[in-house]
Design a protein that fits this description.
- With 261 residues, the protein is α+β, with helices and mostly antiparallel strands.
- 25% of the residues lie in helices and 33% in strands.
- Helix 1 packs across helix 2.
- The radius of gyration is 19 Å and the shape is elongated.
Length: 261
């Protein structure tokens, strides 16, 4: 099939109709949610790729720029293709990823997309996540170190009230928590940290969350080793990448996790 193309969003389509199509493919999200995401697209830190067939939008996917690395990294999110054109879904995904960046991190892809990423030789960046109630921090206070609240070391996120930045008083290590909630349950997602030191500061993070909300739950990526505290394993935030080495820091800052949830 040669009469299709991928275009970067330029306001030439009905955003409400597109939002409804996204919502149909992801029923846990209302169309109003996708309308807000579409309205926030700036083509600098976020993009919307459209599958266009004979002048009509037949599929789409979002892409968000991830900060925290010294090279360009983007993360795809929410992909749909109209049922009658699912036969070119794979080609759409391949082409969209190629247009996004040479470096990709896909956070929480659907099971179908995971199969495609594995076929493309993408590797696990995180094997899901650990969920830890903040009250657990009280149990291990003997291991406490010092974290202090600070401004973002990355200018792009300086004014974000949903992001909590913490700094070690012993080194130049930074940690970032994304505040969100689901069904009234407060979650604090660890979206940026030094992989070498996370176990040293896990208690401090839990105690910090405890002070904000005693019911708070820390969600930290499962990088293949335990956190040293009692936690529940979850498949949420299972991440894949086409790169195997990202340095000492883990970051999904700017991904759908940071920007949307």
């Amino acid at each position: 099939m040669s009469d299709w193309s991928i275009e970067i969003f330029q306001n030439q389509f009905d955003s409400q109709t597109l939002a409804k199509k996204f919502s149909h493919s992801f029923p846990q999200r209302p169309s109003s949610f996708f309308e807000r995401v579409i309205d926030s697209i700036d083509n600098i830190n976020s993009k919307l790729f459209l599958l266009v067939i004979k002048g009509e939008v037949r599929g789409a996917t979002f892409s968000f720029k991830i900060s925290g690395y010294n090279f360009d990294v983007w993360s795809p999110s929410y992909l749909y293709v109209d049922k009658e054109h699912r036969n070119i879904s794979f080609l759409f995904i391949l082409s969209a990823l190629k247009k996004m960046s040479a470096n990709i991190i896909d956070v929480s892809p659907t099971e179908d997309v995971r199969k495609i990423l594995r076929a493309l030789k993408y590797t696990d960046l995180s094997k899901g996540s650990f969920m830890t109630p903040s009250i657990i921090g009280v149990i291990k206070t003997f291991n406490k170190r010092m974290l202090t609240k600070c401004s973002s070391p990355i200018e792009r996120f300086n004014k974000r009230e949903d992001l909590i930045w913490l700094k070690s008083m012993e080194s130049e290590s930074f940690f970032c928590l994304k505040q969100t909630s689901r069904y009234g349950v407060p979650f604090f997602v660890l979206v940026y940290f030094d992989k070498r030191l996370i176990n040293n500061f896990i208690t401090d993070l839990l105690l910090f969350i405890l002070k904000i909300n005693p019911l708070g739950i820390l969600i930290a990526p499962n990088l293949g080793r335990t956190l040293g505290v009692m936690s529940l394993k979850s498949s949420k935030f299972y991440s894949f990448s086409n790169q195997s080495e990202f340095g000492n820091y883990y970051s999904i800052l700017g991904s759908e996790v940071t920007e949307v949830i």
